[in-house]
Amino acid sequence: xxxxQLKYVVAVADCQNITEASHRVFISQPSLxxxxxxxxNEMGVTIFSRSNKGVTVTNEGNxxxxxxxxxxxxxxxxxxxxxxxxxxxxxxxxxxQHYSFAVNAFVEVIKKFGGSEYDFTLRETQTHEIIxxxxxxxxxxxxxxxxRRNKDVILKLIKKNNLQFEVLFTTPLHVFIxxxxxxxxxSEISISDLxxxxxxxxxxxxxxxxxxxxxxxxxxxxxxxxxxxxxxxxTLFNLLIGxxxxxxxxxxxxxxxxxxxxxxxxxAVNDRMTVGIITRKGVVLSRYAExxxxxxxxxxxx
Length: 302
Hints:
This protein is an alpha/beta fold. It has ten helices and twelve strands. The strands form four sheets. Strands 4-3-5-12-6 form a five-stranded mixed β-sheet, with helices on both faces. A three-stranded antiparallel β-sheet has the order 10-7-11. A two-stranded antiparallel ribbon has the order 1-2. Helix 1 crosses helix 2 (18-24), helix 1 (3-15) packs across helix 4 and helix 5 (100-113) crosses helix 10 (287-298). The termini are far apart.
């Protein structure tokens, strides 16, 4: 088994396509396929299930990949330490809910370590997938929230996957609206104020229950007859502006990244949400992950 073979399987797992992965690691498709089969035979595992539609990672392949990613990260750290910080292309991944401050911290990592060659990934994705990504070391860091409603389920799932949760901040609930929304002049918004406006939420796929909702209040908590689910932050913000929609969140937004057309107002409820980071227990974090966490903690959440 070689580090190069581990890089190959990680590339295939990330791309989920042999042809795309071969381009990424600069090797022919037949050579890549042969290298992976040789590794599978040597280790006695089936990492990928192959079909006409492509490749998917098997259950034992997921476990193998979690160790492979950790080995590759540790090898990169060794090279950086003993080659004067020039150990090849930097690799770092974060999975998070749709938070502009998580993007801000990611930008700081690239400014600090990007250099002339790097391979960084920022996944704004579904709640359950964030936990899966960190559990399988597809990402070193996850960023998500807990509340009184989902805390027991989320923390139980984090513990089950051998992860740990570190609190960043706790905040009252806020509403994101556009500056053109009729509610923009209010200093505080009540639940009843929202009744005639569309509620924009992030779709959670197969785990579309309120426990995995990115919003601390869902349509079952109050009367909201107009509901729209989206997958990305840009779409949500466009609909906030175009349809006078709203979403319920932490209230923390980067006007530098998202412009000044979106504003936040406190929501007149007693609920609060706690945003934190998740990491894999027993894993030594890379310098990129450590700097990312430090950057998150240095941001102003007031």
